[in-house]
């Protein structure tokens, strides 16, 4: 594998600094891909219910029945958020009509296709700050909007993820920890499983997808052993058509490896920066060496723009990851995402929403 220093050669020497990297990608394209042999799903005996920590009241699973949707206000559009105020003493300037950009009918048709069974999609990159959570939320929003539900986003970051804070209405404070504590009762719910599971889920503001939030307690990672991860995945795939997983950053974690062994598609998230792209490329090498070459070959890369200026590396990275993975989608910068606050799909620019519909369609293609 290359090193970061090898990625940083002078662009004026031998053309682009990515020449060696791109050549390596072309070399892989002609080689035989190693087909992974994911471990079979474990059969596990019923485990005793996990009790709450000492000093905390025991939470009993509520009776079946879905709560009414939380009333939410329509968020302001990006144009309203960024429109300058008129100067004092001057008449207000007339608003320029916003150009409407509708999602491609072909993209919507691809997103609405019958997938045959529930599909699991993991968003991965061991480096932080590469729009992994943003990509998980917006992909789930685009899929759920097109399919009119049946999509869930799970924050499986073992060390305090933020997906639950950035996506959905905080109608309660329950997280994956509470679900794990009552896993036996939820599994035994039978035909009432969706109603029982719903008591542990949050929902996006527009109702397009559900959210299983991560927990702030780092001690939870000890409970998310491979068997527990598989039990949670089994519940989610029995109640939803698409499960989008925001993964952690530790590629050696049993949790991370269990998720990778159970997915139908990997989505590599990155931004057009050398350190982020190197981390993604190293991870793909790591997966190939571990016997997951077929997952790498069929993965999708998402290149997100963190600034209005795409930067000089975008074209090179797009070409490289198009050779390493099945496809590479580019999504534009949007000012509503810059604060890092709650993500509202409807607050994105029309061009950005259309790009995310197309990116989500690329993710589900071939599943």
Description:
The chain is α/β, with parallel strands linked by helices and 367 residues long. The chain has one domain: 3-Layer(aba) Sandwich (Rossmann fold), CATH 3.40.50.300. Helices cover 35% and strands 11% of the residues. It has 14 helices and 8 strands. It has an 8-stranded mixed sheet with strand order 3-4-2-5-1-6-7-8, sandwiched between helices. Mean pLDDT is 78; it is low at 1-17 and 29-90.
Shape: globular
**Termini gap:** 30 Å
What is the averaged pLDDT score? Answer: 78
CATH class: Alpha Beta
Strand content: 5-15%
| Number of DSSP helical runs | 14
| Number of structurally distinct domains | 1
User: Any idea what the CATH superfamily is called?
Assistant: P-loop containing nucleotide triphosphate hydrolases
Unreliable sequence segments:
1-17, 29-90
Number of strands: 8
Strand order of the largest sheet: 3-4-2-5-1-6-7-8
Structural category? alpha/beta
Helicity level: 25-40%
Order of helices and strands: HHHEHEHHHHEEHEHEHHEHEH
CATH architecture: 3-Layer(aba) Sandwich
- Major beta sheet summary: 8 strands, mixed
Estimated radius of gyration: 22 Å
Q: What is the CATH topology descriptor?
A: Rossmann fold
Would you spell out the secondary-structure blueprint of this structure?
Blueprint: H1 19-29, H2 78-82, H3 105-111, E1 119-124, H4 132-147, E2 151-156, H5 163-166, H6 176-181, H7 183-187, H8 193-198, E3 202-203, E4 210-212, H9 226-239, E5 242-247, H10 254-262, E6 265-270, H11 274-289, H12 293-297, E7 300-304, H13 314-324, E8 327-331, H14 350-364
Parallel strand pairs: 1-5, 1-6, 2-4, 2-5, 6-7, 7-8
Antiparallel strand pairs: 3-4
């Amino acid at each position: 594998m290359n090193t970061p220093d090898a990625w940083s050669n002078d662009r004026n020497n031998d053309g682009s600094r990515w020449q060696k990297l791109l050549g390596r990608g072309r070399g892989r394209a002609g080689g035989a891909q190693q087909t992974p042999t994911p471990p079979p799903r474990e059969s596990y005996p019923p485990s005793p219910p996990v009790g709450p920590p000492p000093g905390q009241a025991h939470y009993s699973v509520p009776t079946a029945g879905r709560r009414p949707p939380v009333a939410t206000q329509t968020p302001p559009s990006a144009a309203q958020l960024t429109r300058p105020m008129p100067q004092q003493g001057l008449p207000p300037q007339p608003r320029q009509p916003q150009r409407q950009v509708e999602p491609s009918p072909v993209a919507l048709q691809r997103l609405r296709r019958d997938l045959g069974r529930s599909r699991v999609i993991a968003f991965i990159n061991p480096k932080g700050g590469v729009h992994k959570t943003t990509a998980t939320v917006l992909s789930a929003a685009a899929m759920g909007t097109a399919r009119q539900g049946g999509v869930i986003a799970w924050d499986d970051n073992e060390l305090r993820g933020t997906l639950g804070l950035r996506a959905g209405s905080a109608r309660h404070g329950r997280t994956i920890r509470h679900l794990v504590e009552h896993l036996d009762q939820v599994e035994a719910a039978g035909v009432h499983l969706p109603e029982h599971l719903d008591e542990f889920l949050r929902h996006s503001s527009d109702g397009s997808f559900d959210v299983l939030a991560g927990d702030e307690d780092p001690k939870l990672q000890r409970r998310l052993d491979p068997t527990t991860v598989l039990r949670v995945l089994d519940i989610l795939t029995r109640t939803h058509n698409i499960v989008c997983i925001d993964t952690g950053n530790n590629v050696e974690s049993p949790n991370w490896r269990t998720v990778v062994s159970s997915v139908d598609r990997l989505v590599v998230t990155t931004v057009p920066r050398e350190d982020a792209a190197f981390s993604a490329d190293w991870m793909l090498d790591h997966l190939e060496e571990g016997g997951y070459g077929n997952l790498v070959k069929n993965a999708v890369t998402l290149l997100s723009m963190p600034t209005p200026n795409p930067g000089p590396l975008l074209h090179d990275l797009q070409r490289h990851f198009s050779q390493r993975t099945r496809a590479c989608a580019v999504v534009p910068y949007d000012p509503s995402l810059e604060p890092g606050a709650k993500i509202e799909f409807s607050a994105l620019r029309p061009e950005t929403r259309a790009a995310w519909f197309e990116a989500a369609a690329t993710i589900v293609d071939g599943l």
